[in-house]
Design a protein that fits this description.
By secondary structure, this protein is mainly α. About 70% of the residues lie in helices and about 0% in strands. The protein contains eleven helices and no strands. It is globular. The chain binds fe (ii) ion (FE2) (2 copies).
Length: about 280
């Protein structure tokens, strides 16, 4: 166990390190850094449009993510300031996808207005009730999102699509950094209260799903048809298991903390899509 003041100091240090790297090495600019002049409309397709639109939809619940996150973290400086920084970075994701869809001509402004209306008609609710549980959730969700965007970057490289390559390089790098910070916060929580944090992590893992689930119309179908989703196996091998390893825990420990069930590779996580 550690003192609350020690925990505050650790959170502050972790945030300062995150922010310094973000400011010095990771900042990118939608207007200058994306090679918009290389947009090639001959590469347009409805499948591609639906893929980007699905990501866009998931990023568009930002006001709800921010409201929920700030409410839970406002009494802890490092966590609250991270939320503020996180919101700025995430705001660029939805925006760059929106700009891509309209600049490429795959969606018109009026189509987008309709789309926005449909998205904002429902609101995202926090899937868990405490800051620590949401830290566990963030570590997994950001890792899953990184995997999805990284996969799209690889597709863009393969297809010689310079615009999407740049976009997915920037957004996937942001998501990797977010996953890293959530993991750092989870390690601090583990030091403060290992049993409690393990119980929270077990709960989150056992009921994990992406934010768009139940919110975005035809979510599963969109993920499947547009190629936006990642497989459960990919999630387990490249997001869940590495996260558990980095946190110094195992599926067996989670299983012991959470009766009756916990995930195994043959019982796939109900993950279906990235944000
Ligand atoms: Fe994002
Ligand atoms: Fe993120």
């Amino acid at each position: 166990m550690i003192e609350p003041s020690t925990m505050r100091a650790k959170m502050y240090d972790a945030y300062l390190e995150f922010f310094e790297v973000a400011e010095r090495k990771r900042r990118w600019n939608i207007f200058n850094d994306v090679p918009w002049d290389l947009l090639d409309r001959s590469q347009n397709s409805e499948r591609k449009a639906r893929c980007i639109e699905t990501y866009c939809a998931e990023e568009f619940y930002l006001p709800d993510y921010t409201a929920g996150g700030v409410e839970l973290s406002r009494q802890m400086f490092g966590a609250a300031w991270f939320q503020a920084c996180w919101s700025y970075e995430e705001s660029k994701h939805g925006l760059v996808f929106r700009e891509y869809l309209t600049r490429s001509g795959m969606r018109s402004e009026s189509q987008f207005a309709e789309f926005e209306q449909a998205i904002f008609a429902s609101s995202w609710k926090l899937p868990f009730t405490t800051r620590r549980q949401m830290v566990c959730y963030g570590a997994l969700q950001e890792a899953a999102t990184f995997l999805a965007y990284k996969a799209q970057k690889d597709v863009a490289v393969r297809d010689g699509d310079k615009v999407l390559e740049a976009i997915f390089s920037f957004v996937s790098r942001d998501e990797a950094a977010h996953a890293g910070f959530y993991r750092a916060m989870a390690r601090i929580e583990l030091d403060a209260d290992r049993a409690g944090t393990i119980a929270d992590l077990a709960l989150v893992v056992s009921s994990f799903q992406m934010p768009g689930e139940g919110l975005i119309p035809d979510y599963q179908e969109r993920l499947r048809d547009s190629g936006a989703g990642i497989s459960n196996r990919h999630f387990l091998q490249h997001a869940l298991f590495p996260t558990l390893k980095l946190l110094g825990t195992t599926r067996a420990e989670l299983k012991a903390a959470l009766h009756p069930t916990i995930l195994t590779p043959t019982e796939p996580v109900p993950l279906t899509a990235p944000r």
